[in-house]
Specification:
Elements lengths: L10 H19 L13 H14 L2 H6 L10 H26 L6 H24 L5 H5 L7 H11 L1 H33 L1
Helix pairs in contact: 1-4, 4-5, 5-7, 5-8
């Protein structure tokens, strides 16, 4: 039986653990607001994404909250939010717990989460990169746009949610590959004895 190592001695696991802990309130207070019934959401919680969209002009969150665009939200993005609520949020809790306990059995779930999140964050980054830069014309035509500083803010808040899961995907695939190889070698050794 393997002795668990403290999380502070496992730098990548510590980053993943902190990432999950930070992601829980961001998910509950900002991202999932588009899925909550407004009548059941206290005003101070509803105000958080409104403040965020006013500051960043996030075309994704603004769209699903009906705060920007033509009133037609990105359906695919709302679907991604449902995945965040039903799959990712439980993984944040289970992943943080498994990492804290140094449980190798969590690696499969973390690989699935990380690959899924990397895949769903990439289209979001594409939208942010292709959203027009604010100009007199975009303002006149009421086209959703962002200033250069808003784009920088948006990218600086979305990119970590791409990079960390991308690294986690490679890391968990590598860890699982090593465990599988060790298991195959042990099975081969058992057959020979």
């Amino acid at each position: 039986m393997r002795t668990a190592s403290p999380i502070t001695s496992r730098p990548l696991d510590l980053v993943y653990f902190a990432f999950f802990l930070v992601h829980i309130p961001a998910t509950l207070l900002i991202d999932l607001q588009a899925l909550y019934p407004p009548s059941l959401t206290p005003y101070f919680i509803r105000a958080l994404p409104q403040l965020y969209v006013q500051m960043s002009n996030d075309p994704l969150i603004g769209s699903v909250l009906g705060m920007s665009g033509d009133g037609q939200p990105f359906v695919w993005f709302k679907t991604f939010l449902a995945v965040e609520a039903l799959f990712q949020l439980p993984v944040f809790v289970l992943g943080a717990r498994g990492l804290w306990r140094d449980s190798r059995s969590i690696y499969v779930l973390l690989l699935i989460y990380a690959a899924s999140t990397t895949t769903t964050t990439l289209p979001c980054l594409s939208v942010l990169m292709t959203t027009p830069t604010t100009s007199a014309q975009t303002i006149t035509d009421k086209i959703v746009s962002v200033t250069t500083s808003q784009r920088f803010l948006l990218l600086s808040s979305y990119i970590p949610f791409f990079i960390i899961p991308f690294i986690m995907t490679i890391d968990m695939a590598s860890r699982l590959s090593k465990l599988v190889t060790t298991g195959i070698d042990a099975a081969d050794d058992k057959k020979l004895s």
